[in-house]
Known about the structure:
Blueprint: H1 3-12, E1 19-23, E2 43-44, E3 47-48, H2 49-59, E4 64-69, E5 81-85, H3 91-99, E6 107-112, E7 115-117, H4 122-128, E8 134-138, E9 145-149, E10 155-160, E11 168-176, H5 177-183, H6 190-200, E12 205-208, E13 213-215, H7 219-228, H8 235-245
Parallel strand pairs: 1-4, 1-6, 4-5, 8-12
Antiparallel strand pairs: 2-3, 6-11, 7-13, 8-11, 9-10
Amino acid sequence: MTTTTVSKSLEVLGRGPLEAIILCGGKGLRLKPHIWDDKPLLPLGLYSLVDSQIEWLERHGYSKIVLASHKKLSTRESPMVMHSIEDRPLGSGGAVRKALQYISASSVLVMNVDDLLLDLNPARFLLDHSHIPTIAVARPKLDFGAVEINSGGFITSFSRKAKVKQWVHCGFSTITREIIQKYFPDEGPYEETVLPLLAEKECLRAYLYSGRWFTINTVKDYFNLLRELNIQYSEEELLKRIRESTSYP
């Protein structure tokens, strides 16, 4: 079944089109000095990171995907892909608000380009949580050894790669048009303004995600993702592909 067929079937069922905003901003400072330019252009098999995310959404029936960034990043020529270009950094909240002009659906998936939820069905996620703001949350593993300490100051347990006890936002949200228009700032991060406000009002739901989550903040994160996806580059080939997709000062 093609993407167009999936989308039309959903509309016939009264579920509306599936539309997404991919946040492609950020300076990727922690990837430097190895990679100097745009994180969305990191090579990931046959595609760049951003084009891999687009292909994933299209495969699950999304009919419109808006890339929010400071410049055109995707090389995919598709009527389904639109570009919301910022002339200055707006933060995640401002980026979503600006990109809303390209969205026709009453609810939209908002996601970070550098967060990959490999076991998530993005169509199901949006369809099941289209009427109330919902964020995907997970309990990631620590990169450190976690300890428990008794009243005498002695360590009673030590766990390497333990999961954090709190749930954390993993970069995916379903948000209604009404909420974006009413609460999202013209500039600034929505994670620091809108989500705390919605939580205080008790109108923000959590989707408990227990699958594989990769977020690319460092070169190590990037290599871990390549390993998980069984993408093998020789050192020479990887450096060549990174140089082709990035620019250096």
